[in-house]
Amino acid sequence: MESTPAAWSEADSFLAETLVGPDAELEAALTAQRAASLPEIEVAPVAGKLLNLLVRISGARRVLEIGTLGGYSTIWLARAVGSEGRVVTVEAESENAAVARASIDAAGVGDRVDIRVGRGADVLPTLVGGFDLVFIDADKESNTIYLDWAAKLGHPGTVIVLDNIGREGEIVRDDSDDPKVIGTREGLRMLGEDARFDATALQTVGAKGWDGFAIAVVV
User: Fold this and answer.
1) pLDDT at 111 over 90
2) Helix axes 72-81, 24-35, angle to 10 degrees
3) Backbone phi, then psi, for 67, in 5-degree steps?
4) Angle ∠(30,25,216) on CA atoms, nearest 5
5) Tell me: the pLDDT tens digits for 184-193?
6) All domains of the chain, ordered by start, with CATH?
7) Fewer CB atoms inside 10 A, N or C side of the chain?
8) How far apart are CA 135 and CA 77, in angstroms?
9) How confident is the model over 117-171, as pLDDT tens digits?
10) CA dihedral sign, ordered 196, 182, 128, 159
């Protein structure tokens, strides 16, 4: 099969059907997000499952998410931390947070999720540290701010996942004037140069196009 965006999406659908399967609560969260006209930038089902597995593999019980949107990835994370765990998720837009709150509650994990509304740069300094896993999926221009706080609010062994690092391959351009590309490059450079992190990154193709994610551990 030729490698095209349509083929990537078809393969992604096959993987989701085979390894994730139908999920009424998650599908309801997406329906609510679409009804509220939120942007369709949530993680793909296979990526949501990956986040869930990373929490479980690492044994994380306190999870920080930066960028809630409609709560789709939050539900994946909240399920993974278990009944005794906690997810703190930061969302800049109050309208998004309201949609997320309703969907998270409807999914039966509302008691595990604390939604903080405000800009990440303002909210993060108010949080108490000790997070075991941090998922960063917000404005790319602030990646270095978020990574700095992920290290400060984490501990040795904290897992950090930085989403959307592929940027359709534009990350190779050191002359890009796209703030999202610039922010992504700066975040990747920080992960590579800052002694607090040990990191790698993977490109991905799928329903979300040509993208990828970085994964790091706080050392």
Assistant:
1) yes
2) 150
3) 110, 90
4) 70
5) 999 999 999 9
6) 5-218 (3.40.50.150)
7) N
8) 9
9) 999 999 999 999 999 999 999 999 999 999 999 999 999 999 999 999 999 999 9
10) negative
